[in-house]
Design goal:
By secondary structure, the chain is an alpha+beta fold. The chain has three helices and seven strands; from the N terminus they run E-H-H-E-E-E-E-E-E-H. The protein has helices at 14-21, 24-30, 117-148; strands at residues 3-10, 37-41, 52-59, 62-74, 78-85, 90-100, 103-113. The chain has a seven-stranded antiparallel β-sheet with strand order 1-7-6-5-4-3-2, covered by helices on one side. Strand 6 and strand 7 form a beta hairpin. It starts with a strand and ends with a helix.
Length: 149
């Protein structure tokens, strides 16, 4: 199963970074290019433990819907969102935060698996892992910008 590990260093307090990372509004702002919308569940504000959100977006010209639930939350160190319904066979995203001196290190551990067996595996290898990495980098750039601004 593909795993993306991305570390982002932010010049801001850990609590601020944690809250920005779980902000529905920030997520929507960072994903404007794909026309992402929150259509059910928690649609704005800060998502919390056991809450879910259903996203609608267009990727590769195809409309997708995906529902994710916050399954773990240890404020302000960790939260986990997992897909409960959507296009992937599996999606598990850990958001980890630690303080280093006066900065916050935000680590994304993003595991996913495409459906469709061998065909899904080929799609993962050829372009999907890189595409998902770019989406996470875009979101993290927005978190860093807002936290440091």
């Amino acid at each position: 199963m593909p795993t993306i590990i991305l570390k982002t260093l932010i010049n801001a307090r850990i609590e601020n970074c944690f809250d920005l990372a779980r902000s529905i509004d920030l997520h929507l702002q960072s994903m404007k290019a794909s026309g992402e919308k929150a259509i059910a569940g928690k649609k704005s504000g800060l998502i919390d433990l056991n809450e879910s959100v259903t996203w609608r977006a267009r990727h590769f010209g195809i409309p997708f819907e995906m529902t994710n639930k916050i399954s773990t939350m240890e404020y302000p160190k960790l939260f986990v969102d997992e897909m409960v319904k959507g296009p992937f066979k599996k999606l598990h995203h850990q958001h980890q935060f630690i303080t280093i001196d006066s900065q916050t290190e935000m680590t994304d551990v993003f595991e996913f698996q495409a459906p469709f067996g061998l065909l899904g595996w080929l799609v993962e290898k050829i372009f999907l892992k890189n595409y998902m990495l770019k989406l996470i980098e875009k979101r993290n750039k927005e978190i860093k910008f807002q936290a440091e601004g």
